[in-house]
Amino acid sequence: GENVEQHPSTLSVQEGDSAVIKCTYSDSASNYFPWYKQELGKGPQLIIDIRSNVGEKKDQRIAVTLNKTAKHFSLHITETQPEDSAVYFCAARGSRDDMRFGAGTRLTVKP
Amino acid sequence: EAGVTQFPSHSVIEKGQTVTLRCDPISGHDNLYWYRRVMGKEIKFLLHFVKESKQDESGMPNNRFLAERTGGTYSTLKVQPAELEDSGVYFCASSQSRNGRGYTFGSGTRLTVV
Q: CB distance A89–B4 less than 8 Å?
């Protein structure tokens, strides 16, 4: 099955700086890569996703890049704000349609 | 529309006791998933229902865990007897289409076994 590795486990940035979270996956047939944001006391919420037929997708301050050859994908948050502080999870849907998640990154944006 | 609802939100039980977690998916969502996150680790897949049928239960840790989805609506996850290593946050998620966009998650049930 699919195996997803996520780094770093914690990330602290100054407000206004950029944050980058990286994930790798093992199943070369994986075709869908969502990112989730989990705020305190809530469940993970989908913030952006990318399919394997594109290399980059952007939504305002959030962007995701995908390198299928290297089997890695990244989340980029620009102009970070304190409300971006949360735990972020990457995920990959494998060839068996199973969704596997990374271990999460705790992002802290310091004002 | 109402989201995915889970209860209880927290449960503290003693080792050896039984606990039942409940998940109400979004109405009309045939796919229902159970996941668990042990502190600091990945959100780990437990099982997947399509309507009332177990599509994939390869992530269930052992036979102390029993999941049901009678009638294809809400689902329950029973742990009996609970062990210390069962502690974690149990998430339920639902989706309308298996190949669609990501899942909608509930807020989770934080289970602590003491």
A: no
A12, A21 contact by CB (below 8 A): no
Integer CA distances (angstroms), A23 to A80, A91, A102, A106, in order? 20, 8, 7, 14
In the Cβ-directed half-sphere of B93, how many Cα atoms lie within 13 Å? 27
Task: Give the A:B interface size as CB pairs under 8 Å.
Answer: 58
Backbone angles phi, psi at B39, to 5 degrees: -45, 125
For residues A94 and A2, is the Cβ–Cβ distance under 8 A?
Answer: yes
Would the CB atoms of B91 and A43 count as touching at under 8 Å? Answer: yes
Indicate if the alpha-carbon torsion angle B50, B28, A39, A42 is positive or negative.
Answer: negative
The pairing of strands B19-24 and B5-7 is: antiparallel
Look at B4 and A43 and tell me if their CB atoms are within 8 Å. Answer: yes
Digitized pLDDT (tens) for each residue of chain A, 111 residues in all: 678 999 999 999 999 999 999 999 999 889 899 999 999 889 999 999 999 888 999 999 999 999 999 999 999 999 999 999 999 999 998 777 778 899 999 999 999
At B64, which amino acid appears?
R
Alpha-carbon distance A96 to nearest alpha carbon in chain B (angstroms): 10
Residues of A in contact with B98 (CB under 8 A): 97
